Sequence to fold (211 residues):
Amino acid sequence: MKVAIILFNINLKEFSLDSYFKIGCDGGALNATQNNINLDLSIGDFDSINKEEFELIKNNSKQIIKLNPIKDKTDVEEAIEYAKNISDDITIFGGIQGKRIEHFLSIINIFNKYENLKLIDNNSLIFKIKNKFEFRKDDYKDYKFVSFFSFNENYNISLNGFKYDLDNKNITKLDSSLLISNEMKENNLSVITNKDIFIIFSKLDNINNIA
Fold:
């Protein structure tokens, strides 16, 4: 079974979540409720949710876990730990954009702790790849740009089938611009790297595209 962890800042009408075990995480539980998505679980400290909103969430959830606001883990990490007991196929919906950028950065850091996570919103898809990743352009046809980044100080990467290919290029933090806003050229593409890296698929957005 696949697990969806639903957060904020996402238009859920663009996704079909029928086949997922659905977890509403804090404000994401309200987002799901307002979009008529029935939740298997709502989890969070709900400190930004008022009493009326919390009642709506409770009536829309099979189970509620209310966390202490004073805790060592974020609501998202608590949701992931619960989800890991159900499946290793976990997708986080939302959380990429918004005023609280520290929450997005904390989610990216969580990717270094847990495997097989995906993060998606209405504009982007992010997940971690290892060693060799092969894919088809047709499987990601909704996206225009492909970018890469890593927490590693330096690593080697080869890109094949892209507008800008690389041949076992050593990448340092000073070279990060080489890996921003590439494009898929061939239908069959591959990425080869000697370290864990993130791949980001992004849709075309002429208003906010600053690359």
User: Anything to note?
Assistant: The chain has two domains: 2-122, 127-202.
